Amino acid sequence: MPTDKASTLLRQFNDTIDQWIVSLDNYTLEMLHQKPRPGSWSLGQVYMHIADDTKYFIEQMGLALTGNANSEKGMHENAKTIFENNGFPDARLTGPATDDTVPQPHSKEILSESLTATKLKANKLCATHDLSVSTGKTRHPGLLFFSALEWLQFAEMHMRHHFRQKKRIDDTFFV
Q1: What DSSP line would sit under 72-100, residue for residue?
Q2: Residue 144 φ/ψ, nearest 5 degrees
Q3: Could you count the other beta carbons within 10 Å of the beta carbon of residue 127?
Q4: Which of 2.30.40, 3.30.67, 1.20.120, 1.10.3470 would CATH assign to domain 4-22+42-173?
Q5: How do the pLDDT tens digits run along the chain, 175 residues long?
Q6: Which runs of consecutive H residues, i.e. helices, occur in the chain?
């Protein structure tokens, strides 16, 4: 049974991923492929990024639950700030994941199915493990080591961070 913190984080995760899933109904595939300006991501690319990264984060959550590997290792100072604020800084981030190699989605259904499958996996992990007592950690590519509970929180914060980007793109459609 999840602890209060785990229950709260799971509820927030579910609420945030559900917003992404439900919002798909507001767009056609053509709208999802449309870039607001040259060199920027389309909303479809944002969705692909969210789907792929969230799936990875939840896979890492599962791996962290399998033992106590890396339990003595900590997160990067930048990650500590993100977790203390329960959110990413209000800034446009750049890096390898923000380039134009993110593909366009082939269908809205693929996006919905991917996000739903990831949500179900996160919920199953939380139903079958007590995240609060898990001591294992896995490495984030840039922010060092997270526990299972931290991966869940990070996944939600990451999706929530992209709501700002979604709003900027939405403003080009729904002026």
Answers
A1: T--B-HHHHHHHHHTS--SS---SGGGST
A2: 70, -130
A3: 10
A4: 1.20.120
A5: 445 899 999 999 999 999 999 999 999 999 999 999 888 999 999 999 999 999 999 999 999 999 999 999 999 999 999 999 999 987 765 544 455 689 999 999 999 999 999 999 999 999 999 998 999 999 999 999 999 999 999 999 999 999 999 999 999 887 6
A6: 4-23, 29-33, 43-64, 77-85, 108-128, 148-173
